[in-house]
# Entry
Amino acid sequence: MRRLQPRTADGGLRPALVGAVGADVPARRTAHRVRRGGPQGRGAVRGRAVLRRGPARPRAGRHRPVHLVTALPIRDELRGMSPYGAPQLSVAVRLNTNENSYPLPDEVVTGVEKALSAVLRDLNRYPDRDAVALRADLASYLGHELTTANVWAANGSNEVQQQLLQVFGGPGRVALGFTPAYSMHPLLAKATGTGWIDGQRGDEFELTVPSVVAQLEAHRPDVVFLCSPNNPTGTALPTEVIEAALDTAPGMVVVDEAYVEFRRPGTPSALGLLPGHPRLVVTRTMSKAFAFAGARVGYLAADPGVVDAVQLVRLPYHLSALTQAAARAALAHADVLLATVEAIKAQRDRIVATLRGYGLTVADSDANFVLFGRFRDQKAVWQALLVRDVLVRDVGLPGWLRVTAGTEAETSAFLKAMGELL
# Structure
């Protein structure tokens, strides 16, 4: 039998690329630097976890590498890049992309089918250009006395954030995020010609008011990204940190709340800060708590002026009639869809407690995932879990891995595999 080379932590996607960015991009910790190129390397750090050897496992089909033809006249800042994405591998337990592991309930499937059927005969016509009915439903779901004028929707929160950078960023302007954080933010900045600054977190990935104020005063960014809960660390921000950013930053403050439905009791949403803060934008998604990742629906809540501004750059009829109909049907069953949230939180807390019992360092989490370490070589741990048919995420932080909280069975499989390794 032919011997197969083991997978790398990035799925073998970029062996020929130099300075590639995208999946599992390392968080750069250089103090207060504008990012000019690709990521730094991922060294290992000292840790207490020691791996036991596991059986070899042949790999499934790998992704075809992406090669950019340098002879094409692409923009200079895009050279050496590769598309964003996590490995999509055939495994029994896939816990690497923070999806909701629970399929849609039958009544939701039926509701979506009926909604789609109702619009099929009109697909010869363009959809509602401004998705007014969907925005009204989203405003109703959010509460806080928000109206249609406060809400905008697009194809995933990434598109929403890209539109924000097109409007408030761009050439000659800069955005700042506090790394480690969501790795798409600097990529969106680069794609829109916006400069990027890596702000810094504390040794335990925390953000404090004095640190945020000092960094924003030093750099005066046009757009600030705050993730609450933060990806990949999982922790939510105290209200006073967001307020400090609003009081200090001269430009827009974008709070990415993709995982907010999973927050622990007593953790506030930034939606409560919208009144009186016209430069605050809160972005959300239906991909996580709503288990609607395949539909690609994201949205924002903000001052009506922000909603008017993003419409200056949105593409014509950007949100299809099918997407709008499916999203509205899902929102009509919000109580059913969100019923899985508590079950997922229970598995998250189980993961935290068990991994700490194994002697690992585990970050507190308000999301549907857990960051854990510290390993001497997180790539070896990633590979060893994959051998055991469990796929987690190497997020590029030396010594750390991230695992999604899934079903009880998925959690058990992951914890069993970890127990075998330690």
